[in-house]
């Protein structure tokens, strides 16, 4: 790991000022993506701004009809939160599937979303549930937030402060893990919302998380896995690597969407 | 350099460290607590697991500066020198939960955290699922799972947490 200067702001405003003042500064919260890539010297930020000591940035609460999760809430906190379990149990389950127990004790939702790893779990939930990413500057809709591999709408001095999830009628997340890395080879989050149905896929797209509108249209008419029969997912734009071909991933998207719809219906 | 202070195994510790120092380096090289091991150094194997504020974390993926002001417990902190072993350590000895022993400190710290979170009656399925982040290349896990199930029960009757 290369040398860096370490900063520990007490507020989001101080953190943002540090980002403005120090070019190429990086934010750190749990550090479970950033520290490994710094160790591999794939990243060498000259300044690290530690968000983990900012009070109130990890709050989990209901605000009106939205579940609001603070940016530095750890995966284990989301997984075990009674508030999340009550409002969107699929989201609690998703958080409990990230990494391993020790990783879940450190990794944060804000960090996962800011990094936008194409195999990360949270992006699928954010896109399917139609969540809003709240930053120190503005509110970003999920559709405009994700911009491809490891790429987001965040500006250099912008900090995610919380994520607002509208509560769906039903939802489920099904993850097919790579047997070695345990990352999602494909993960599908299905949400039946008051006005529509959304199906978001992680792990498979060569451009990151995406929606399967053909499935969404069919499921909007009737929320049953049976309506998906005969609708194929194209392998175009899907990843092909030693873990699985694009065709295999396309097939998995169909299988996992069916399972997710069944799981969502079983929660009644 | 950054000034840090934390409680390690119940003792206050102050130091001046380069901010890029990993918690595991700080524990092993500054404090000479070499029971915590570096295995893969990529947050996968779990040989470096310690407790940070009572929660299992991978100390190879945590900066020492981020543990500033917090409480750390390592394998050395489970039972005092010369005193009887912690029930989880004793269970690993009793049930042959180790062969080379390299992964053992991390296994035991993960197991103790697991008992704190999920209680004393643990099914094999739960134990195996919870060991996702701890790799052992010797045992085939069978006796590690047996050790943790027995250690969890023994912890219910012990004063050592």
TrEMBL record, chain A:
Q: Which controlled-vocabulary keywords does the entry list?
A: FAD, Flavoprotein, Oxidoreductase
Q: Which residues form the FAD-binding PCMH-type domain?
A: 1-170
Question: What domain of life does the native source organism fall in?
Answer: Bacteria
Supply the Gene3D superfamilies for this chain: 3.30.465.10, CO dehydrogenase flavoprotein, C-terminal domain (3.30.390.50), Uridine Diphospho-n-acetylenolpyruvylglucosamine Reductase, domain 2 (3.30.43.10)
Q: Which SUPFAM superfamilies match?
A: CO dehydrogenase flavoprotein C-terminal domain-like, FAD-binding/transporter-associated domain-like
Q: Name one GO molecular function term.
A: oxidoreductase activity
Q: State the name under which the record lists this protein.
A: Carbon monoxide dehydrogenase
What is the species listed in this Swiss-Prot or TrEMBL entry? Bradyrhizobium pachyrhizi
Automatic annotation (TrEMBL), chain B:
In terms of domain of life, where is this protein from? Bacteria
- Swiss-Prot/TrEMBL keywords: 2Fe-2S, Iron, Iron-sulfur, Metal-binding, Oxidoreductase
Under PROSITE patterns, the record lists: 2FE2S_FER_2
Q: Does the keyword Hydrolase apply?
A: no
Question: Would you indicate the residue range of the signal peptide?
Answer: none
Q: Does the keyword DNA repair apply?
A: no
Q: Which GO terms describe its molecular function?
A: 2 iron, 2 sulfur cluster binding; metal ion binding; oxidoreductase activity, acting on the aldehyde or oxo group of donors
Please give the name of this protein. Answer: 2Fe-2S iron-sulfur cluster binding domain-containing protein
């Amino acid at each position: 790991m290369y040398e860096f200067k370490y900063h520990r702001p007490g507020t989001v405003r101080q953190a943002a000022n540090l980002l403005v003042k120090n070019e190429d500064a990086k934010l750190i919260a749990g550090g479970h993506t950033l520290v490994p890539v710094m160790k591999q010297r794939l990243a060498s930020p000259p300044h690290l701004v530690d968000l983990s000591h900012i009070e109130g940035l990890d709050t989990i609460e209901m605000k009106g009809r939205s579940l609001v999760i603070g940016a530095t809430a750890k995966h284990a906190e989301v997984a075990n939160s009674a508030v999340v379990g009550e409002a969107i149990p699929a989201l609690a389950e998703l958080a409990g599937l990230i990494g391993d127990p020790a990783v879940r004790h450190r990794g944060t939702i804000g960090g996962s979303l800011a990094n936008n790893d194409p195999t990360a779990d949270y992006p699928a939930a954010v896109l399917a549930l139609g969540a809003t990413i709240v930053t120190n500057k503005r509110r970003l809709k999920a559709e405009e937030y994700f911009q491809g591999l490891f790429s987001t709408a965040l500006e250099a001095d912008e900090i995610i402060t919380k994520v607002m999830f509208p509560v769906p009628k039903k939802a489920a997340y099904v993850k097919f893990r790579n047997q070695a890395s345990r990352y999602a080879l494909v993960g599908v989050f299905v949400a039946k919302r008051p006005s529509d149905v959304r199906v978001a896929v992680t792990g498979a797209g060569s451009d990151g998380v995406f929606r399967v509108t053909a499935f969404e249209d069919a499921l909007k008419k009737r929320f049953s896995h049976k309506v998906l029969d005969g609708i194929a997912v194209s392998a175009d734009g899907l990843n092909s690597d030693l873990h699985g071909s694009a065709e295999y991933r396309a097939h998995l998207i169909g299988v996992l969407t069916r399972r997710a719809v069944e799981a969502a219906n079983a929660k009644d | 350099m950054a000034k840090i202070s934390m409680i390690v195994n119940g003792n206050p510790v102050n130091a001046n460290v380069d901010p890029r120092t990993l918690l595991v380096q700080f524990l092993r090289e500054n404090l000479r607590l070499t029971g915590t091991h570096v295995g893969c150094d990529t947050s996968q194997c779990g040989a470096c697991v310690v407790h940070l504020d009572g929660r299992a974390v991978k100390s190879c993926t945590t900066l020492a500066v981020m543990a500033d002001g917090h409480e750390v417990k390592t394998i050395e902190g489970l039972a005092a020198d010369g005193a009887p072993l912690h029930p989880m350590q004793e269970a690993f000895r009793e049930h042959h939960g180790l062969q080379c022993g390299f992964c053992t400190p991390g296994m035991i710290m993960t197991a103790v955290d697991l008992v704190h979170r999920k209680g004393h009656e643990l099914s094999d399925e739960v134990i195996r699922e919870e060991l996702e982040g701890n790799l052992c290349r010797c045992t085939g896990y069978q006796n590690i799972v047996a050790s943790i199930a027995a250690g969890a029960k023994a912890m219910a009757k012990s004063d050592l947490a």
